[in-house]
Amino acid sequence: MKISDKPITVKLKQLHVDVRPGISLADKTSLGIGGTTDLLVLNRFDAIPDVMRLLASEGIAHKFLGGGTNILVADGELPWVVLQLPPAQPGMQVEGNVATVAASADLGGTVTFCAKRDLGGMEGLIGVPGSIGGALRMNAGAYGTQIGSYVREVELYRAATGTNETLRGNDIRFDYRHTSFAPDDVMLRVKLELPSKPYKEIVAGIRVCNEKRRSSQPLNQKSAGCIFKNPPGGSAGRMIDELKLKGHGVGDAMVSDRHANFFVNTGSASCADMLKLIDDVRERVRTAYGIELENEVIVWRN
Ligand code: EPU
Questions:
Q1: How far is Cα 82 from Cα 38, in angstroms, rounded to an integer?
Q2: Average pLDDT rounded to a whole number, residues 33-42
Q3: Measured between alpha carbons, how far apart are the two ends of the chain, in Å?
Q4: Which residues, 6+ apart, have CB-to-CB distance to 288 below 8 Å?
Q5: What is the pLDDT of residues 250-285, one digit of tens each?
Q6: Residues 38, 20: contact at Cβ < 8 Å?
Q7: C-alpha angle with apex 104: 254 to 182, nearest 5 degrees?
Q8: 30 CB under 6 A from ligand 1?
Q9: What separation in angstroms does the CA of 197 have from each of 16, 120, 148, 204?
Q10: Ligand 1 contact, 261 CB (< 6 A)
Q11: Ligand 1 atom at shortest distance from the alpha carbon of 246
């Protein structure tokens, strides 16, 4: 969607928004798939409610982009603009056992930053790509750790009230790859309360997780991590592997030959290719196991 040639840009500028015309979302996502639209960088949290009102009054559809590591974006000219928070560095402060982190901060960078201050607990999350905001929204987890366990407070923009609000950790539900945030809530900042742990011990834990990840996941290929959630008590990766689907593909979209729940873009896969592959694999798992796999990857259709 092209708004960069419209009068609204003047008002957006007054609200500290940078408009970046014609951005390719293939360049903004870890899958390397996605069409083109204008990107709006929201430089001031306190201006977000006014920006949202302005977009609504002009009938401009929008979507919020975090780190871009868990989404599959439609091809072509996209019918909505994309909103993003500016990069967070330096976006972290530590007081006692509490780290205050901006939503746009890198998750891995946050784990390391806290480790250097002898705050641990999140070692398992070290290799999970993405931003703190995205990790919060989906309760990212790996190797027995999930971010939700450490959340003391979240500052967010609530579309339902049109204001920025602060929620206490206890008032938020964090389940497996699911939270009680509304789909149109926008994460702004989080306070994480972390256990004290000597840096050396944290680094040792980080090494173990990195090694496990390197040996089982296709880290040097374009992917969105796991495509499907694991069904209760089961493993999507194991089932897809048992069906001998590693290497199975549609166009340049392929089931990784390293981990069967990672679907990789081996060249210039389109969103249509990837969706076809996802549906095909889901169908085969349904037929073989009677289990309907649910997407973990978030799909932005046009
Ligand atoms: N397996 C296979 N073949 C495969 C992949 C896995 O047989 O191709 C088997 C493994 O041998 C193991 C079992 O399936 O016995 C589980 O595999 P793994 O330990 O790799 O864990 P996972 O359930 O596939 C989950 C998360 C990952 C996270 C790892 C490590 C989900 C959907 N995935 O994978 O998270 O990194 O555990 O904790 O919950 C993500 O969410 O994007 C993600 C990568």
A1: 7
A2: 98
A3: 11
A4: 239, 243
A5: 999 999 999 999 999 999 999 999 999 999 999 999
A6: yes
A7: 80
A8: no
A9: 40, 5, 19, 11
A10: yes
A11: 8
Do the Cβ atoms of 285 and 239 come closer than 8 Å?
yes
Q: What is the pTM of this model?
A: 0.97
Element (H, E) at 54: helix 48-57
Q: How many residues does the chain have?
A: 302
| Token pair recorded at residue 63 | 């979507």
Whether the CB of 230 sits within 6 Å of ligand 1: yes
Task: Please list the active-site residues.
Answer: 177, 226, 296
Q: Which amino acid is at 291?
A: I
Ligand 1 centroid from CA 235, angstroms:
7
Strand partners, 250: 253
CB 78 within 8 A of CB 302: yes
Q: How far is 69 from 217, CA to CA, in rounded Å?
A: 15
Residues 6+ apart with CB under 8 A from 57: none
Identify how many contiguous H helices and E strands the chain contains and give both numbers. Answer: 7, 18
Q: Is 226 in the pocket of ligand 1 (CB under 6 A)?
A: yes
Residues ≥6 apart with Cβ < 8 Å to 116: 199
Structure tokens at 265: 């873009």
Contact 78, 23 (CB under 8 A): no
Distance of CA 237 to the CA centre of its chain: 20
